[in-house]
Amino acid sequence: MTIALRQLVLKVYSRCDLACDHCYVYEHGDSTWTSLSKVISEETADQVARRFAEYAKDQKLEEVLVVLHGGEPLLAGPKRLRFICERLTAHLSPVASLDLRIHTNGVQLNRTNLRLFDELGVKVGISLDGDRTANDRHRLDRRGRSSYDRVLRAVDLLRENEFRHLYLGLLCTIDIANDPLAVHDALTALDPPRIDYLLPHATWDHPPGRPADGPAHTETPYADWLSAVFDRWDEQEQAVPVRFFESVLSTLRGGPSLTESLGLAPSDLAVVETDGSFEQADSLKIAYDGAAATGYDVFRHGFETLAAHPGVLARQSGIEGLGLAAKCRSCPVVASCGGGLYAHRYRTGSGFDNPSVYCSVMPGATLLVHASLGGTGCRPPPFAASSRRSLGPLGSRRSRVHARELRHIRFMNEF
Predict the structure, then answer these.
(1) What NCBIfam families does the record tag this protein with (predicted)?
(2) 182: domain range?
(3) Cβ within 8 Å of residue 307, ≥6 positions away
(4) Is 209 inside any structural domain?
């Protein structure tokens, strides 16, 4: 049985105006982008919208999510973006409720773009890695210049009353060389509706970086970094939602995961490149060249064909399926961890049949939040399904696990 695909990441521009050295599209094992057209054509955009609408109608989907992505999607320009959004709306709105978004690095975002997005109902998410020091560690432009001030100008525009309703939140890629409290405080100061912390993409072949020495050197550096942020978030009474922590809270209470990188919920994501080719989750590009490819495209195939692709099915198979390693299936926190992001499990020889390379982070983060809910010896309270924001306070601060205590927890896999 296949799970309906409700989310579409539509690549509208395949190049970028930044040169982030942690980018999964350009800096890992995949070279697909070199053969793609720079900008999606009007013909391709219309065909994508038509195919997705046909699929949504056939599957009787009540709502669908489309995220305009890249590269840097704003490089497509206002005229092409208008055409894409209007075709998506024209085809999809008669059959399903359309949630239309764009994710950008913010460098090109201006009032012209925002007025267009306001007219077309497009919400905006921005990538920002924290304070100036943290952001400029990786997110420089192609001339080696800081992107920080330009991105902050974009965020300031989104915070204005005229555009505040378009502001989705901030996406931050973790670097353990950065001060976690400085990063979190810098992001919360921008009053985002939500913060999403993303583990840097890595595999067992290319494991994540870790400090060589100094005070930051621990056996569990990513767990410690996240723990410090969690403590600050808790101290701030969770004033700004943090998707990573809320996802763990939700799954511990029997609710759904709020992110693909955690939990056992089946993937419902489709990706279409600028040339109309279907891909699996594009995070798979970190594994090897062509890892996300399917051989399908919107001119010869429909979304129902993509939904039946073995790679898509593997990410929908849950705890008993082939998509989860045997070691993960027997893990006590698998319901919250879910084996981690599928791409992070890759190792030459065994493919994706491994625990995540971040296995040392997931149990620690889960136990951290579990203890905050009342201790590891009791079952967390039921999840309030009526609202993802209804998770409530974490409970007694006496039960909260501090970052230094987390270091004494033995993790299943060290990298």
Answers:
(1) SAM_SPASM_FxsB
(2) 7-199+261-313
(3) 2, 3, 4, 5, 270
(4) no
